[in-house]
Specification:
Pfam families: HTH_17 (PF12728). The chain has three helices and five strands. It is of the alpha+beta class. Helix 1 crosses helix 2.
Length: 96
C-alpha cells in the first residue's frame, strides 16, 4: 500500500513500498534485501531494487510460520532440554 492509500500498480514493489508495508525503515528494508533474507532483483544500470509482490507475501507468511513454530517450541516440553553446545548435550554433573 502506498501513502496515498491506493494499491501499488504492477508486479513489483520499490523498497519504499516494502518498508511501508512492513512498517520498517527504508534502511531496514534495504538490509533485508542485501542480506538475501528478502529476495529481490536489481533493475537498470543504477541498480534499483524491486521486490515481487508475491515474494513479499511469501516472506510475510514465512515470518508468521516462524513465529508460530517458535511459540509452539517455547510451549513444549522440549524447551526444557539441556542446552546443546558443540553438538553435545551439556548437563549438570551427577551428584550422588
Amino acid at each position: 500500500m502506498t501513502s496515498s492509500g491506493a494499491e501499488p500498480v504492477g508486479r513489483f514493489l520499490t523498497l519504499g513500498d516494502v518498508a511501508e508495508i512492513l512498517r520498517i525503515s527504508l534502511s531496514e528494508a534495504s538490509d533485508l534485501v542485501r542480506s538475501g533474507e528478502l529476495p529481490a532483483i536489481r533493475i537498470s544500470s543504477v541498480g534499483v531494487w524491486r521486490v515481487e509482490r508475491d515474494v513479499l507475501e511469501s516472506y510475510i507468511e514465512a515470518k508468521y510460520e516462524e513465529a508460530r513454530r517458535l511459540n509452539l517450541w517455547l510451549q513444549s516440553d522440549f524447551a526444557n532440554i539441556p542446552e546443546l553446545s558443540g553438538g553435545r548435550v551439556v548437563r549438570e554433573p551427577h551428584r550422588g
